[in-house]
């Protein structure tokens, strides 16, 4: 954990302290925030494609990008000797006031910089350790399932619904030994018989890999499907239609009583079971659980939107525009239900007669 300094100096100047650590081809930038003389916390960043840059270049690039859409403090303390004139001008233009970049701080700011440097180094070592663990798990996964050593990028699909309602398929991405949340995608499933998981899965795969086959995005080395032999067969057919049938495909069927460690893995037409303590299985579980979490969150959001809309759609005289106005004004369906007739009349286009009708129908037993 990062060290923290809570000494309150009484200063009222906002300060960010930024330090860089580099080791074994990995770079960490630690940013510590000090407001009113009090250290509020820090955060570590791991910029991609920084291998060919030195610490000064990484730091300058980070400062330029980090403050594009964030408030700029009055002072930025850094641990490298930068040509700060141009950077100060850029930050000042963004902040609409002067900004100082200090490369040789003293007293408390020097202590904060030393702390940020330690934080960066600790975070870097933790990430290197984690990547070592992930590398071990990925190697074990390849060996356990008989996959080539080239397997790096993995995508996993899960479908979530409630009795077939508001089905959502989710795709999560694991690449460069970490989950890549910025590349996650959800697909609202329509035109499929409610509860048809095979059809829902096939639709999501066709949509995702149809685009990739057309040149949009990166094809994975391996696809996980939450399900067994049937889901794998449906997935194979969908992939074949996109022309990407050469991608390795594995189904993850839950074990007896859905106990972790007893999963049945479908590789082609054969079922494989890895020991509960197998490092490759731990990676599979991590990716599968993340896909499930992401799918469930998407399904719940879609179901909530659909039920909200359908409730108001059932009231004659309420079109799409008025539904939108009501939901916006009262912050959602709960707020509309809680509103009085008088409150409802405050919405543009809602007469007292219509307000009474809305209130009556929303509160009908």
Please, could you describe this protein's structure?
This protein has 365 residues and is α/β, with parallel strands linked by helices. The protein has 3 domains: 15-129, UvrC, RNAse H endonuclease domain (Nucleotidyltransferase, domain 5, 2-Layer Sandwich); 154-305, Nucleotidyltransferase, domain 5 (2-Layer Sandwich); 314-362, DNA polymerase, domain 1, CATH 1.10.150. The protein is 44% helix and 21% strand. The chain contains 10 helices and 13 strands. It has helices at 55-66, 84-95, 107-145, 197-213, 229-242, 279-313, 320-330, 333-338, 341-344, 352-362; strands at residues 15-23, 26-35, 38-45, 75-78, 100-102, 154-162, 165-175, 178-179, 185-188, 222-226, 248-253, 264-267, 270-272. Helix 3 (107-145) packs across helix 6 and helix 4 packs parallel to helix 5. It starts with 14 loop residues before the first strand and ends with a helix.
What's this entry about, in short?
With 365 residues, this protein is α/β, with parallel strands linked by helices. The protein has helices spanning 55-66, 84-95, 107-145, 197-213, 229-242, 279-313, 320-330, 333-338, 341-344, 352-362; strands spanning 15-23, 26-35, 38-45, 75-78, 100-102, 154-162, 165-175, 178-179, 185-188, 222-226, 248-253, 264-267, 270-272.
> Over the alpha carbons, how many angstroms does the gyration radius reach?
27 Å
Strand residues, percent: 15-25%
Largest sheet features: 8 strands, mixed
Runs in which pLDDT lies below 50 for 5 or more consecutive residues are 1-10
CATH architecture of the largest domain: 2-Layer Sandwich
């Amino acid at each position: 954990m990062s060290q923290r300094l809570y000494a309150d100096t009484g200063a009222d100047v906002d300060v960010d302290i930024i330090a860089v650590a580099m080791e074994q081809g990995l770079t960490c930038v630690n940013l510590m925030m000090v407001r009113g003389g009090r250290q509020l916390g820090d955060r570590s960043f791991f910029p991609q494609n920084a291998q060919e840059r030195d610490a000064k270049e990484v730091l300058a690039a980070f400062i330029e990008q980090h403050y594009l859409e964030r408030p700029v403090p009055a002072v930025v303390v850094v641990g490298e000797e930068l040509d700060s004139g141009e950077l100060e001008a850029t930050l000042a233009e963004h902040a609409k006031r002067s900004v100082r970049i200090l490369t040789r701080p003293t007293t408390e700011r020097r202590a904060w910089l030393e702390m940020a440097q330690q934080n960066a180094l600790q975070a870097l070592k933790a990430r290197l350790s984690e990547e070592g663990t992930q590398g071990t798990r990925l190697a074990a996964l390849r060996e356990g399932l008989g996959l080539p050593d080239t397997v790096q990028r993995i995508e996993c699909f899960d479908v979530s619904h409630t009795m077939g309602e508001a089905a959502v398929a989710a795709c999560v991405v694991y690449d460069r030994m970490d989950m890549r949340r910025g590349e996650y995608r959800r697909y609202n499933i329509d035109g499929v018989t409610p509860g048809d998981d095979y059809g829902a899965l096939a639709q999501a795969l066709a949509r995702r890999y149809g685009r990739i086959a057309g040149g949009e995005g990166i094809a994975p080395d391996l696809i996980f499907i939450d399900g067994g032999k049937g889901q794998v067969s449906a997935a194979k057919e969908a992939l074949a239609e996109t022309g990407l049938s050469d991608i390795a495909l594995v189904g993850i069927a839950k074990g007896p009583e859905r106990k972790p460690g007893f999963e049945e893995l479908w590789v082609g037409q054969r079922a494989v079971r890895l020991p509960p303590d197998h490092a490759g299985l731990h990676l599979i579980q991590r990716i599968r659980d993340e896909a499930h979490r992401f799918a469930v969150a998407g399904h719940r959001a879609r179901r909530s939107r659909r039920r909200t809309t359908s409730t108001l759609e059932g009231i004659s005289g309420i079109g799409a525009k008025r539904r939108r106005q009501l939901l916006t004004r009262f912050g959602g369906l709960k707020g509309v239900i809680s509103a009085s007739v008088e409150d409802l009349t405050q919405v543009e286009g809602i007469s007292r007669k219509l307000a009474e009708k809305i209130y009556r129908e929303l509160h009908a037993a």
